[in-house]
Design a protein that fits this description.
Layout: E1 18-19, E2 22-23, E3 51-52, H1 65-82, E4 86-92, E5 107-113, H2 119-134, E6 141-147, H3 148-153, E7 158-159, E8 162-164, E9 186-187, H4 189-199, E10 202-205, H5 209-212, H6 218-231, H7 237-252, H8 258-265, H9 273-285, H10 292-314
Parallel strand pairs: 5-6
Antiparallel strand pairs: 1-2, 3-10, 4-5, 4-10, 6-8, 7-9
Helix pairs in contact: 1-2, 4-6, 7-8, 7-9, 7-10
Length: 317
């Protein structure tokens, strides 16, 4: 998520989870603070019995036991926090793509609710998810909450009820964030999340993915990822890998994982082969930010990839 008209929090260096390019993790209590909302009827599935969304390419049972248990805890937390308002919980990203690794990944999720959240509920949501994120995989949890009405009547960029990720933590520590108006809570990233979810997603509980989430056109998805690419800092491992996988998508329509996208681009970028193989090693090691020695190359790579893409779009077939 990004604040409209302002610097994306990923461009800041005030990140509670990533200190000195390492992962700072501290244990927090497992005790869940109960939501004042009424409890939801127990007619839901559990993580180990997760239903498949349309086009889903992975199942939670194929992931390691640690992830499975964490997703059960995440599901339980959201039930407690959102109560009777909760409609469904959906997982996308590396977990759904069978590319998840506890030591380098995050859990990407969308939660859908039946009505707007109050300011108090937003504060409670962030407090609980922040604590759980610290107990999770290396990059924590990234989760956005949307109303069913917004999914039906809204359009890109969608308005979120609440968002949390380690990169967003700085903003939800500001006084009064819970009272931001709709324009301040519009998020260009949600469109690409929905697109990814419909391609490869997991239902933890709730209606099937295609019954709840709107179809995203290729052009709208391209608009969403273009915003992200120009905005994301070049000195992040994920930024370099995303440039590769999005380039593959724009060429073929294939939605690949970060690793698959980079591997596919290697043969046609001989001048950057050594650099990209270094990026891949850093990715496997769980690195977030590149060393200064690689930053200049990363910035040059980003500029050349965006130029290459523009040239390919304007050249006749």
């Amino acid at each position: 998520m990004r604040r409209r008209g302002e610097l994306h929090p990923r461009n800041t260096r005030i990140l509670y989870a990533y200190l000195d390019k390492g992962i700072s993790k501290k244990r927090v209590s497992n005790k869940t603070t109960e939501s004042p909302l009424p409890k939801r009827a127990r007619n839901h599935t559990v993580a180990s019995e997760a239903k498949r969304g349309t086009g889903m390419s992975s199942d939670i049972s194929e992931q390691d036991e640690k992830l499975t248990e964490f997703l059960k805890l995440f599901q339980h937390k959201l039930r407690c926090i959102l109560g009777a308002k909760l409609i469904g919980i959906y997982i996308h990203g590396s977990v759904a793509q069978n590319a998840f690794r506890w030591e380098r990944s995050d859990v990407d999720a969308l939660a859908v609710v039946s009505e707007r959240l109050t300011a108090a509920e937003r504060l409670h949501f962030v407090e609980e998810i922040r604590a759980l994120s610290l107990e999770g995989p290396a990059k924590g949890i990234e989760v956005s909450v949307l109303t069913e009405k917004e999914l039906i009547e809204g359009a890109h960029p969608y308005v979120t009820e609440c968002h949390y990720s380690p990169f967003w933590d700085e903003y939800v520590r500001e006084a009064g964030w819970e009272n931001w108006d709709d324009e301040s809570r519009r998020d260009e990233d949600i469109t690409s999340h929905i697109f990814n979810l419909r391609q490869k997603g997991i239902v933890l509980e709730g209606p099937e993915i295609t019954a709840l989430f709107p179809e995203i056109s290729r052009e709208t998805f391209k608009e969403s990822i273009a915003y992200d690419e120009h905005d994301a800092p070049a000195d992040m491992v994920d930024s370099v890998m995303n440039l590769c996988r999005y380039h593959c998508f724009l060429r073929s329509g294939a939605l690949l994982s970060k690793e698959e996208g980079l591997q596919r681009m290697l043969p046609e970028l001989p001048d950057y082969e050594a650099f990209l193989r270094t990026i891949l090693r850093e990715f496997y090691a769980g690195t977030v930010y590149l060393d200064e020695a690689l930053t200049e190359t990363a910035e040059r790579f980003k500029e050349e990839m965006l130029t290459k893409r523009t040239k390919e779009r304007t050249e006749p077939d």
